[in-house]
Amino acid sequence: MFETEPSKINILLKLQLIDYIMSVESQNETVCPNPECKYYLRVEGKAIIKRGKYKTGHQRYYCKHCGKFFMDTKGTAVYRKHLSADEIRLIYRLFLEKNGIRSIERITGHHRDTISHLIKDTVKNQKTEEYLVNQIGLTPSECKKLWVLLEKKKETSRKVT
Questions:
Q1: Strand, coil or helix: 160
Q2: In the list 35, 74, 105, 151, which could disulfide-bond 112, CB 3.0-4.6 Å?
Q3: pLDDT in tens, the chain (161 residues)
Q4: Which residues span the domain enclosing 150?
Q5: How far is residue 39's CA from residue 59's CA, in Å, rounded to a whole number?
Q6: Does 78 reside within a domain?
Q7: DSSP 132
């Protein structure tokens, strides 16, 4: 009786591991963001391969159908920002601690326009939130705080006339 229970547990653990791996692989579906590609945003029939990394550490992809390169950050606030994940994490965490743009500039050494553009371009959507949690390392509670702070900042920002 005791010998069969551990084997059942091992089988259950293996099945749970397989289910987890399958779910992770299905979540990492990278599709072509090029509107001119015939496989634009289609999962079926895609031919996308990894083609190195940029100097910032972001994954670089290549679509074999249209011949275009793209990044995994397309559609997020960090797209075309020349900042590493550690620098982005530091900027967001300092912003969450209610530091001003100029104090973040002094701490990180990046220009205030770079920091303000990163914060201003941060839009609440599923892809941005997934990227912040999975790639940058923010917690879901930090993301919620970030969205609240961004809403307050947009409400209190000066209106251009």
A1: coil
A2: 105
A3: 444 455 666 666 555 545 544 443 444 577 888 888 887 877 777 788 888 888 777 788 898 888 888 887 776 777 778 888 888 889 989 998 989 999 999 999 999 999 988 888 887 777 788 888 887 888 888 888 888 888 887 777 666 55
A4: 85-156
A5: 20
A6: no
A7: I
